[in-house]
Amino acid sequence: MRVPVSWLAEVVDLPDRVELEELHAALVRVGFEEETTHAFRVQGPVVVGRVLSREPEPQSNGKTINWCQVDVGEPEPRGIVCGAHNFEAGDLVVVTLPGAVLPGPTPDEPFLIAARKTYGHVSDGMIASERELGLGDDHGGVIVLSRKYGITDVVPGQDAMPLLGLDDAAIEINVTPDRGYALSIRGIGREYSHATGAEYRDPAREPGLTARAEAAAPTGFPLAVADDAPIRGRVGCDAFAARTVRGVDVARPTPAWMVARLRLAGVRSISLPVDITNYVMLELGQPIHAYDLGTLRGGITVRRARPGERLTTLDGQDRALDPEDLLIADDSGPIGLAGVMGGLATEVSAATTDVLVEAAHFDPVSIARTARRHRLWSEASRRYERGVDPAIGRVAAQRVVDLLVELAGGTADNAFGAVLDATAQPESIELPAGFVDGLVGADYTDAEIASTLRAIGCDVEPLGGSGEAGEARGWSVTPPTWRPDLRTKADLAEEVARVVGYDRIPAALPVAPPGRGLTGPQRLRRAAAAALAGSGLVEVLSYPFAGEADAERWTPGRPAVRLANPIDGALPFLRTSLWPGLIQAARRNLSRGLTDLALFEIGRVFLPEPGTAYGTDALPSAQARPDEAVLEALEASVPPQPWHVGALFLGDAVPRQPGVAAVPSGIADAVSTARHLAAALGAPLEVARGAHPALHPGRAAELRIAGAPAGWAGELLPSIAAELDLPRVVAVLELDLGALVAASAPARTAPISGFPAATQDVSLVVPTATPAGELLAAFRAAAGELLEDARLVDDYRGPGIPDDAKSLTFALRFRAPDRTLTQAEATEAKLRGVEAVREAFGAALRE
After folding, report:
1. Whole-model pTM?
2. For residue 836, which phi and psi values (nearest 5 degrees)?
């Protein structure tokens, strides 16, 4: 929100020569965020001049310049060269004299005015245009004061800086979404008063304005609210004021002071009626819309859109309307998107003479949904979706009428219009004594609490009775109509803390309660992250959303949950796998030249049960903790969200070095990472051959925990890798971390044996389809406790081995805890294993 200083000074007393930094500091004290400052970047001398003569002089380059004599209030006129042609002798213009500074291309490059020779003359100054002064974008000619701003009662030499508002400046603050009342001079002035104690004058309660608004009770104009599709049971419009002004001269210029204030507030000047509606919106916070009365047909109806209806809005876009869109309509059909933007057919144009002024109150949820649905954000929708005062419509409409009468020469028609006053009033909130102190952690007197709440506009009444020593038992607080964000006693406590000052809150570190901390699963999840990071992988965090192509590709047979209101329309599903996020991170890094990657992520995935519907409209109130039945229903309304761990490898696992060849990443990295992770958590993990539609056949491993599927490791299909602009070999891993944590067991330490080990090898010839992991598991079980370690060291297929067989060689290590093993004992254990795998898999010793 941009706040012109001169405008703010009309509603609250400011110190003489107030600095912008002081204004920012005061508003920061009451909870706003400082952004920046705005000014016209014009320094004098800038004066009023009267053109005494204008002599056109054609030039050899085809251009015609004007050699002018201009009276600037000095004994002798100044000669000025001007290339514009929209003025005549006798016109009052704006002259920048030598020494003046105008805005340049950037703040660091100002444009300095000096006497300089050009076109055979010494131009002793410059006649300025609107754009050169920063007042607007018009550069088609110089400013003629009488035509541009209707200024005639000035004399040559008069300082034009205050005349045009060029000496004004504005501060910009960030207004949080819950404080929509502060998107107005009215609201900011009140907040500055809270911060400094300065006297505040509510522009919406100016006695004359209020009296005129109440006296002009318009009748005779048909108005109907026909909302057949209210959102959450709330009707889309609960207050509507329409007023008519006839005989408006839309060609009249907007006054310079209004143009300057609008410009500083970030709004460009368009035409006098439109400028007036924007001005009142910024002043009071009530969006206003003006219709050309001559284009309306019949009365006005506020209703939802009908199937097939369309509307061309003021931006020239033809829009297909949704049945949920709230409309302003007449007998001809839609004439505006309520609270968002008006229709092109009824806009105020150069031919308009009679204007209908609308000031209404619309439901914030309805306006927010319409603005997002049409991607049509406006200053009006910005205010409506944050909350507009429902009781200010009449006053705002009257303010527009007064300005149209004063500035546009119109005549107010009090007998033509419509009024619907809001009937719902803010609900009272019971604020017990001591609640504010207990919540905020600071001591406040009863007088401070009551006076602060009254200062922000609340009605405060003591609760019946009193406590010991006559202290109040609390208060019944009714928030003002412009504060829809005040709904609970905690909101009131926050207001007391904010207005009295956050510096009253003591700084004290809370004492952690004993016996609490991370749960067992939390500790194990952190241990998993530490193990992966310690192995050289880099953790990434990705969004939990997926596009349609990724919704079911990575988890076949498992549907994905579509969001009702996605943040990104291209990612409307909740992820069912961590792989899409890891792949996007890999693509981003590859685009930046990082070709060797080992990434991991720990996060939740969303795995709905097929055929189960999720979601609920019955949300519990936040006033109290829901009971167990409600919590169970809420839990059932969301899909299972287990913790998963995922990893991705591409490029070289070991980079090329002098004397060492590069080792590329592959399935071995994914499988070994899964095993390392399981070992770090003390969980059993089985690796078996598997088939996944997104993984390379023959290079995919199914990961199992206690015999149940728990994840996958392997390499992406080359076709998928090519589709995603990835290298041909990309290894991936995904494991159900929740299952891994549940299967983990406390680490058990064993004494280190002081006896030597007996080592042997065994080579087994088995059918090609025999899984090495299953073979090794059977061998271990049969060999017994003396087998300390066994690992696959070779997989041979070639001469000497049948075509349908392979030779698997295992390195074996035997050890006894209490004696030195003999080779005979080790051989006996090995042969027990060989016999077991011969019976189970048809294995034979390789000769």
Report:
1. 0.69
2. -65, -45
